[in-house]
């Protein structure tokens, strides 16, 4: 039997663009993020069609043992003084982890476990982030250019957005031209 040489997909490490099609693409706009930003009035007054982030995924098999690969392109911007961010989620199968690779831009990866313990990791070109199971995660763009991160995760992991209906315990904002982290005050 003669081996078959097939060309795998490529990613441009500077832009996060995939060279292979077909790709699956999902665009998230401000209108898709009610309750995510602290400044509800600022969110209502912003252009609801403003793109906050795009996700491009390789169209691959799903099922037990399969992996998804995608790139999130998170645009720069703010609602009020809070930086643009992804919705953030736990995995539906909580034990499933994920790996992020920073490709371009600057930002933060906000991690929160089920007990509410949190930490932040800077995301820059070349950074590698191991997101353990039982951990919610959110990308935040604190820079002036697109923040792109490649992600690899189990195709069976799923997303659980409802578990974070009350939001993350920290907000990342700009105050006096500086990135600041603020604990959410309840009550």
UniProtKB/TrEMBL annotation:
<dbReference type="GO" id="GO:0005737">
    <property type="term" value="C:cytoplasm"/>
</dbReference>
<dbReference type="Pfam" id="PF06560">
    <property type="entry name" value="GPI"/>
</dbReference>
<feature type="domain" description="Glucose-6-phosphate isomerase prokaryote">
    <location>
        <begin position="29"/>
        <end position="184"/>
    </location>
</feature>
<dbReference type="InterPro" id="IPR014710">
    <property type="entry name" value="RmlC-like_jellyroll"/>
</dbReference>
<keyword id="KW-0324">Glycolysis</keyword>
<protein>
    <recommendedName>
        <fullName>glucose-6-phosphate isomerase</fullName>
        <ecNumber>5.3.1.9</ecNumber>
    </recommendedName>
</protein>
<keyword id="KW-0312">Gluconeogenesis</keyword>
<dbReference type="GO" id="GO:0006096">
    <property type="term" value="P:glycolytic process"/>
</dbReference>
<comment type="similarity">
    <text>Belongs to the archaeal-type GPI family.</text>
</comment>
<dbReference type="InterPro" id="IPR010551">
    <property type="entry name" value="G6P_isomerase_prok"/>
</dbReference>
<dbReference type="InterPro" id="IPR011051">
    <property type="entry name" value="RmlC_Cupin_sf"/>
</dbReference>
<comment type="pathway">
    <text>Carbohydrate degradation; glycolysis; D-glyceraldehyde 3-phosphate and glycerone phosphate from D-glucose: step 2/4.</text>
</comment>
<keyword id="KW-0413">Isomerase</keyword>
<dbReference type="GO" id="GO:0006094">
    <property type="term" value="P:gluconeogenesis"/>
</dbReference>
<dbReference type="GO" id="GO:0004347">
    <property type="term" value="F:glucose-6-phosphate isomerase activity"/>
</dbReference>
